[in-house]
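Journal club prep — side note

Before the paper discussion, L.F. wants everyone to see what a predicted structure for a comparable chain looks like in token form. Sequence:
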Amino acid sequence: MSSVAVLTQESFAEHRSGLKDTEITGGVPEDEAYIPTYLEAFPPLPDKGAPGERSGEPAGAWSKIRPIKASVITQVFHVPLEERRYKDNSQFGEGEEAKVCLDIMQKTGAHIELSLAKDQGLSIMVTGKLDSVMKARKEIVARLQTQASATVVIPKEHHRFVIGKNGEKLQELELKTATKIAIPRPDDPNTNIRITGTKEGIEKARHEILLISAEQDKRAVERLSLEKAFHPFIAGAYNRLVQELSQETGARISIPPPSLLKEEIVITGEKEAVAMAIARIRAIYEEKAKSVMVVEVTAPAWLHRFIIGKKGQNISRITQQLPKVHIEFTDGEERISLEGPTEEVEQAQAQIQEIIKDLMARMDYTEINIDQRFHRHLIGKNGANINRIKEQYKVSVRIPQDSDRCGLVRIEGDPQGVQLARRELVDMAQRMENERTKDLIIEQKFHRTIIGQKGEKIKEVRDKFPEVIINFPDQSQKSDIVQLRGPKNEVEKCAKFLQKLLVELIESSYSISVPIFKQFHKNIIGKGGANIKKIREETNTKIDLPTENSDSEMIVITGKKSNCEAARDRILAIQRDLANLKETEVTIPAKLHNSLIGSKGCLVRSVMEECGGVHIHFPAEGSGVDKVTIRGPAGEVERARRQLLQLAEEKQVNNFSVELQAKPEYHKFLIGRGGANIRRVRDRTGARIIFPSPDEPEQERITIVGREEAVRLAQKELETLIKNLEDVIEDSMVVDPRHHRHFVCRRGQVLRELAEEYGGVAVSFPRTGTHSDCITLKGARECVDAAKRRIQEIIQDLESQVSVEVVVPQRFHRAVMGPKGCRIQQITREHEVQIKFPEREESDACPVENGSTSPEADSVPRKCDIITVTGRVEKCEQARAALLALVPVTVDVEVPYDLHRYIIGQKGSGIRKMMEDYEVNIWVPQPEQQSDVIKVTGQEASVERARQALLDRVRELQAEQEDRALRSYKVTLSVDPKYHPKIIGRKGAVISQIRKDHDVNVQFPDKGDEQQVCDVIVIWGYERNVEEAKAAIEQMVAALQEMVSEDVRLDHRVHARVIGARGKAIRKLMEEFKVDIRFPQPGSEDPDKVTVTGLPENVDKAIDHLLNLEEEYMLTVTETETLAAYMKPPSRVVGVGGGDEESRGPAKGFVVRDAPWNVSGSKAPDMSSAEDFPTFGSGVAPKQTSAWGPKKF
């Protein structure tokens, strides 16, 4: 068992004071090396005497050291495979065993580690307080180990001593052995005590019970304290030796089991038998003790866990190689104890010392005291801060738990990393001490906008203010408070930034709605969203369009007010360009606006619908503006203007209104086709009739507004119409059966339209196959009559229809249809025709018999190429022209072959963009053809635009080629290589400036290229620029040729002072005298030679100045060296024999006097002996059998 002790400052002071009295002092002169004796250098440990001698005071310096009590202990025990409760090893560490251990750790507070041995047994290490370890051990045994039972017989009168006072002894025994002990009741004559638990626990409990019984026995009891390591030798294999001793002596010998950390062996029996047994046991102990040694290795206490390694890897490797060596660590003490056979202990000691040496070379630690309230901020969210520091500086940081109430943070690892981590942690703590918190009130609706998609925007804010922590409230809290925490100045800056951002958001939340005709929405969006994207980017607004299947025409623009108005103007401009639209303003008093708009806009909406869908825009409520804007086709705008003025006049004169109720299916009939019926009523009466919109809740309510007499008259007419509609009749008419299909096809779409338009009239056609031509109509009389008239009109149209064939090659059909047939659907709607495409054939080529064809066959169109158009003659011709306009054409464009790769672009991006922009297909010939013809296929207008774009691109590329030819003018200049560094300048500064000023490229010869001419400089670019650059370089060379170089000798000891810190002094000197000064490289043959280069007069001045500096600095150097010579101790200057340092002999190392090997009759170990120092991996036959048995290699 390894124990962990707490070493306090007081106990350490006492520990040190115990050794002070025994420190060796003597009268040896200070300048002579003192050689200590062996006993002084290695004071012996106190001898462990017999139990009776313990009360005496041990001799030696170690006697004054007080033992340090352990607060945390570690116990390790083994569960054999056959006793394991859970034997599934497929997922070790993830099954029931791990869950059980986690549960036990939570209950007891102890730390448990599991490991799997080679024999599939389970090794369990429990660490913690003594009480926690005992409880955890009992739980582990009960839940992870199979249970067995055994009985032990002791006299009935001894049972009470096993139970103890109030059962405390029994409870302690059960806890210590992790067993359940059942003792018979006092009135029960049975003497058997039943023990239930693991085999190991049963043995321990049995041993303890027998000890208790023996103590109470009248026979002699002796306790013999021997080291635990010798117990197996006394017990022998399978306890045979101790059984033989018991039989021979008649004494009962009780040896504690290996798992019980007790050293006492109890012998009970007759006095003579006990004495004989003790003598035999002592003889075995003394014989074995000679072959066992105990060694202590010194290592700092903080280094112990690194020596043990992660999950005990390092120590496990040593104990596996040397299983007979026992290694014990004690926290708080700088020592490691090794116990076992001499040879193996020495090997283990060498390995541990090697580990310690390696760790000491690359490890260090420090401790800093940081207020505990800052610990969680040091750790960061999910350990982000502390993990970053650990990874960045390669250190281990140990922060105490909150329950410890300790502020000491320990850092261990690489020395440099430890210091850097310490500095960063201290800085973080200081920043947190200066922290402040500020709350900002920001409406929650803006939170998502400030955070941005996936947190992108708030990440930018946090990057800008990295020291400020920004916390937004949870959405469920519905709070407007945003919390900022960090340094005071940074928090204030961040708060101002967020407030400014909030002001911009409020400004950007302005919204306006723009009514745009539905058919123009796609033009505003543009190809691939190009138009709308451009408007959004240039005006910096958000533009939302209604969905395609929505009836709304409103486009909503959100952003700053000025930007929204600019975007609105651009959208309206697009609409004006696409249609003949007019915009006018009419002045109506603002107080009448609400009455003109009507309830939920019903009145103004009815005006817009009557006038062809014009858009009427009233100013914002409360603005006080009288101008109302009307936009739409010119004629409809004028009608809407007159109606609005008329309504305004009516509102001013009289504003009488009446409401009627009519079924919604009657509304369309009352309105009439194109609003004819309702317009007729309004013209006769002068009243305004308002029908409900589809989204209004009251669908049956009709409102009549105007003068009272006009309203009453209109009400009377509408009531008459409604009464007539409610008069339901049934009528019939004759329709040719060949036209029936037109009415019932497409799921009866024509019949549905008739019912909607004519007050819900029901039209019934005869069943297919009855050959009847009579159809039935049921509904209001006027609705039935109107429906009959409409059916007659449809029949006349059907009888006047014709079919026209349009020949379009089958390979173009897909292009004519367009995506999802959109082009054909548009032609069908615009020209009111039906278009039918032929069945597609497998091959475009018609079969030809005998492999021949005739001109007549070419002139006859194929069935698969004929598209049929059905409708009125004039409509069919228009649709035919529209279809032919959609047939693709192919145009050849001449483009030089060497420009093809530029037109194609990187990975085809250029040609792809052109095809998308112009909606054409562009075919570029294969490189092996080397053809100049590029084919463009598509609609004629698109092909022409694409052809023009190709030609423009060719002209651009040819202009670039001409420019490249002009830039390729090249000139060579021969310059002595010694001037090259000057022309290049420091870090290329001079030559870079020449390249930038003259827009040329200058290339110097490569030093490593032997074939290249070493003095040729190449300049290329535009001819004029090249000549100017050449002249500039020649001018520099001419100036350099006037310079001279002179060598001056300066004592190498003053070079560093002349150069200055980071060359600052020498650079200032060179700038002052306009010269270049070069010092010799380290290790040069002439370390005093300094070269000065420049104009002759400047060189002379610089040399004079350098010599003056040398004279000044040499005085200081001489004084320093003289003083250093006096400060050196004699032992470092003069050797033992009076010579200098070089004449001294090699160091003697560590020497002691009166060592055991210097005693007469003994000798030092033979280092070359394979017996004393065996080599790993090779065996040496021992001279005699070891007490530990044969050696294993």
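L.F.'s comment for the group: The CA atoms of residues 898 and 932 lie 9 Å apart. Keep this in mind when we get to the figures.
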